[in-house]
Amino acid sequence: PAFGLFLFTIARDPLRIIILIAGAFFWLVSLLLSSLIWFIAVKASDPQDERLQKGLLIFGVMFSVLLQEAFRFLYYKLLRKAIEGLVALSEDGCSPISIQQMAYVAGVGFGLMSGAFSMINLLADALGPGTVGIHGDSQLYFLTSAFMTMVLIFLHTFWGILFFHGCEHRRWWEIAAVIIMHLTVSGSSFCNPLYVGSLVPSYLLMAAAAAWAYLLSGGSVQNLRRFLLCKC
């Protein structure tokens, strides 16, 4: 269902596709830089020191989150300049796409690329060697990984809306809230293989972020009720 966001809301609009691809590129660059820094740190440290290696892994995850949000901010600045250019070129002085729509599409771009890399890593693990759960560990690794991938795609979409809204209205606490949620979700992965410790908080945060983003986008409880009841 997460990849249906692209098919039903973006695929028919060329401008939205461009914004989505650019957003995915920004996420890729942030991943490349964070991976490079983590790789250098690991090579420069003692590989036999398990405590140090675990600390470097935690540092790498937290640094990657902060770098992703930094690139999200840079992408907002780029799109803001793009809107000014579109307004200058349009005949009626209006942009063909609003900043709220850009925030949504950019969030989907971040989320889809994040989900794609999660799926690639999952498929790579599925090739072996070994069998999941052969030593008594949980056999739900692939299932929980799929659910975690889905929640991250949705979360990036909602975070994009919240982050852009915070930048647009200079509500820095909204940006801080997005960063804290991102750090929390990423940090909860260290609870694995106790998957309940990562999935439950992530889905609770997704529900909260979805409601928040819905309200910031102009939604209301009445509109939601009319939608669920299929009323025009």
TrEMBL record:
<keyword id="KW-0472">Membrane</keyword>
<feature type="transmembrane region" description="Helical">
    <location>
        <begin position="202"/>
        <end position="221"/>
    </location>
</feature>
<keyword id="KW-0914">Notch signaling pathway</keyword>
<dbReference type="GO" id="GO:0070765">
    <property type="term" value="C:gamma-secretase complex"/>
</dbReference>
<comment type="function">
    <text>Potential subunit of the gamma-secretase complex, an endoprotease complex that catalyzes the intramembrane cleavage of integral proteins such as Notch receptors.</text>
</comment>
<feature type="transmembrane region" description="Helical">
    <location>
        <begin position="56"/>
        <end position="75"/>
    </location>
</feature>
<dbReference type="InterPro" id="IPR009294">
    <property type="entry name" value="Aph-1"/>
</dbReference>
<dbReference type="GO" id="GO:0016485">
    <property type="term" value="P:protein processing"/>
</dbReference>
<feature type="transmembrane region" description="Helical">
    <location>
        <begin position="17"/>
        <end position="41"/>
    </location>
</feature>
<dbReference type="Pfam" id="PF06105">
    <property type="entry name" value="Aph-1"/>
</dbReference>
<feature type="transmembrane region" description="Helical">
    <location>
        <begin position="140"/>
        <end position="163"/>
    </location>
</feature>
<protein>
    <recommendedName>
        <fullName>Gamma-secretase subunit APH-1</fullName>
    </recommendedName>
</protein>
<dbReference type="GO" id="GO:0007219">
    <property type="term" value="P:Notch signaling pathway"/>
</dbReference>
<feature type="transmembrane region" description="Helical">
    <location>
        <begin position="175"/>
        <end position="196"/>
    </location>
</feature>
<comment type="similarity">
    <text>Belongs to the APH-1 family.</text>
</comment>
<comment type="subunit">
    <text>Component of the gamma-secretase complex.</text>
</comment>
<keyword id="KW-1133">Transmembrane helix</keyword>
<keyword id="KW-0812">Transmembrane</keyword>
<feature type="transmembrane region" description="Helical">
    <location>
        <begin position="102"/>
        <end position="120"/>
    </location>
</feature>
